[in-house]
Amino acid sequence: MSVFSNKTKQIELTRNRYPDLKKGPYADLTGQDVDYFSNLLPGRVLTDASDLEGSNTDWLGTCRGSSQLLLRPKTTDEVSKILEYCNGRKLAVVPQGGNTGLVGGSVPVFDEIIISTQLMNQIISLDDISGTLECQAGCVLAALDSYVSDSNLTMPLDLGAKGSCHIGGNLSTNAGGVRLLRYGSLHGSVLGLEAVLASGEIIDCKSTLRKDNTGYDLKQLFIGSEGTLGIITAVSILCPQKPKSVSVAFLGCESFETVLSIFKQAKHSLGEILLAFEFMDSASMDTVRDNLNLTSPVSEFPFYVLIETGGSDGKHDEEKLTAFLENQMSSGLISDGTVATESTKIANIWGLRERMAEGLMVDGYNYKYDVSLPLSKFYQLVDDMRDRVGGLATRVVGYGHVGDGNLHLNVTSPQYDEELMSLIEPFIYDWVSKYKGSISAEHGLGFKKRNFIYHSKSKSAVDLMKRMKLLMDPNGILNPYKLLPDN
Ligand code: FAD
Ligand code: MLT
Ligand code: ZN
């Protein structure tokens, strides 16, 4: 999944692309600083430009910083000592997990020190009765899923980047993914966490309890705060039972209205076994076909729906899904589709949907948007964007977690094009705001979207966020130029 290869050299430095943005009141790194960290983390300090290349560049290949130092702590105590030192010296830092974030939040803008959770990958405990998993923040999501799977549990979130993203990164972005429909957001499934403030103070909110109403629920502050309030070092999370049987249906639909009708029926008829309800349009299907050579198991349609079910009784679940699909066929909503119960076939179908981000990158530059919209307006944005950008774009595609009201609208062009960008932004944010959507459903604001926060949040809310930031990170060393708007 790496996109860094030889491309990095051609990626413009963020500070050059945004010449008006100036480095904040932070110190420059000195040899003495490097010596301090080398003593603290022997053999776990990277300073070589080529070693830092991948970590300076985001997954999309659209943001590139110029950090000269990457630190790899193993313990919370080490993170605490790093931050205490950086705070004293006013050295800015960027926390980094799997570096799969899609809004430029995980990489430096200027020369911030990268604090990577790569080596904080220990599982602490698993209670297979309550389903509570405790682990360090740098555990890779897929590795955790495979670990808990041995106890017939599953992680309550699943996303295309699972092979690289870290659970700490997931919490920091409040990642959604394809199973939010069933298991809800991380604000519900995270039971506790440990975080380190900019001062180095360790905040212990490591509860493993399902119910705990003693005072403010501080852990929620860190979930979705994108590394601007503290570094998450450990997590406790509730894992649901792993479904005994999983089935996937992939269906062709004539219109977006049909997609919505099927969704309504699916909720009604599949009820508790519905795991995921995703959609993609024909331009999305063209993307993975043209750019990744994937093949569709169904004939050509304007829209496609992917339904996943999972329950505790394979026979019963399959019967339920079959009855539902027969119903949809006889009412004329579906005319072509396929069902898979075997793992390879299921993975191939999921590949069509989950590898979309990878497929889009092949076009060159990817203008990526992730919005929440009322379902009545959901696809109209894609049509309007297509009309607006016309032939300037290579393609305009719509796909996403329709079951959660979350649209991924993506535009591509061979390289970054200012004229095309000026057609897309701020038009898209104004459009979303007009229909009372959110300009970031699940990816966060990061570097790219911070200045559009007012399209989704009131001034009073942003003002309080700024006051909280000042309280928790008075020198502003934690992930500057991210999430909060420029003054
Ligand atoms: P990073 O990218 O390293 O960091 C993300 C942000 O969190 C940064 O601001 C960083 O500073 C901060 N951060 C990281 N670790 C910590 C920490 N320990 N403490 C404090 N701050 C920290 N996202 C979704 O929501 N749903 C999807 O379905 C989805 N699918 C994706 C599919 C692909 C192919 C890709 C490439 C990305 C996808 N994403 C999705 C986006 C991304 O994977 C998620 O945002 C993920 O949660 C990021 O985790 P990470 O470990 O890679 O974090
Ligand atoms: C997805 O759902 O595929 C991810 O959020 C990535 C993307 O938006 O491309
Ligand atoms: Zn998504």
Helix and strand layout, with pairings?
Elements: H1 14-17, H2 31-40, E1 45-46, H3 49-56, E2 70-71, H4 76-89, E3 93-96, E4 113-116, E5 123-127, E6 132-136, H5 141-149, H6 167-173, H7 180-183, H8 186-189, E7 190-196, E8 202-205, H9 219-222, E9 231-238, E10 245-253, H10 256-270, E11 274-281, H11 282-292, E12 303-311, H12 314-330, E13 336-340, H13 343-354, H14 356-361, E14 365-372, H15 380-389, E15 395-401, E16 406-413, H16 418-424, H17 427-434, H18 459-472
Parallel strand pairs: 2-4, 3-4
Antiparallel strand pairs: 1-2, 5-6, 6-9, 7-8, 7-9, 10-12, 10-13, 11-12, 11-15, 14-16, 15-16
The structure holds flavin-adenine dinucleotide, D-malate and zinc ion.
Flavin-adenine dinucleotide binds next to strand 3, helix 6 and strand 9.
CATH third-level topology of the largest domain: Uridine Diphospho-n-acetylenolpyruvylglucosamine Reductase, domain 3
Terminal Cα span: 36 Å
Number of DSSP helical runs = 18
The main sheet comes to:
7 strands, antiparallel
**Mean pLDDT value:** 96
Shape: globular
Q: What are the low-pLDDT stretches, counting only 5+ consecutive residues below 50?
A: 1-6
Radius of gyration: 23 Å
CATH 2nd-level architecture of the largest domain: 2-Layer Sandwich
The number of domains is 4
Question: Helix content range of the residues, please?
Answer: 25-40%
Query: Which cofactors or ions or other ligands sit in this model?
Result: flavin-adenine dinucleotide, D-malate, zinc ion
Q: Given the helix and strand composition, which structural class is it? A: alpha+beta
DSSP strand tally: 16
CATH class value of the largest domain: Alpha Beta
Strand content: 15-25%
Q: Largest sheet, order of strands side by side?
A: 13-10-12-11-15-16-14
